[in-house]
Design brief:
The chain is α+β, with helices and mostly antiparallel strands. The chain is built from four helices and twelve strands. A twelve-stranded antiparallel beta sheet has the order 1-8-9-10-11-12-2-3-4-5-6-7. This is Outer membrane lipoprotein carrier protein LolA.
Length: about 210
């Protein structure tokens, strides 16, 4: 009985702290204006990234690392270096995957998760978050970050994705973390570190040929 009491006590102590981390954003309109204003000056981004895939079925998360590249307009590359070499390139409506030296290029529409991920990242980086359609959106913030929680209303999208959590750094309005939730228990986190802006001068990183 004493142990149960202690557990309940810990829950009530911790809950206010958890809730206090992120509060409802007070001025969403001002936030959207700032995202748009900051995005005008950003033509490309490159950074390190860590991908953490959590599947409730397994005891341990699957962690991968690599380089992330973005270039206006809507060009994305995820160049994995560990635990294995793997490349994903999104350019216009083409998706290229290179694994074990074998290249496969398909229409992006055939991969719903990557298609929606491209749309979310591109919306943030182009400043067009308020123009995202087919989703319910909630806005939160703490001292250092903004959080946009995005849930699809389209049932065909819901079959693949239950929601996106996009964390943006208040210093430069860049995406610091992206969580893609497949369902209530399974999700993939992308953490972006060591970001460099406007360093890419051509589209070599985004070739799908």
């Amino acid at each position: 009985m004493k142990r149960i009491y202690i557990c309940y006590l810990l829950i009530f102590i911790c809950l206010p702290q958890i809730n206090a981390q992120m509060k409802k954003m007070k001025d969403v309109e001002a936030f959207n204006k700032r995202v748009l204003r900051e995005a005008v000056s950003i033509k490309s981004i490159e950074s390190d990234f860590t991908q953490i895939k959590h599947l409730d079925l397994f005891n341990e998360d699957i962690t991968s690392k690599g380089k992330f590249y973005y270039r206006y307009n809507d060009k994305i590359s995820l160049d994995y270096s560990s635990p294995t070499k793997y490349l994903i390139v999104i350019n216009a409506d083409k998706l290229k995957i290179v694994s074990d030296g074998k290249k496969n290029v398909v229409n992006l529409k055939s991969n719903k998760v990557m298609s929606e991920m491209r749309s979310m990242l591109a919306a943030c980086m182009s400043g067009n978050i308020s123009q995202i359609s087919g989703y319910n959106m909630e806005y939160f913030e703490d001292t250092n970050s903004y959080l946009i929680k995005i849930k699809p209303t389209n049932k065909s999208v819901q079959a693949y994705i239950s929601g996106f959590d996009i964390y943006m750094d208040k210093k430069d309005m860049s995406v610091s973390k992206l969580r893609i939730s497949e369902n209530a228990t399974d999700y993939t986190d992308y953490l972006f570190q060591n970001k460099k802006f406007n360093t890419l001068t051509d589209d070599k990183k985004f070739s799908v040929n």
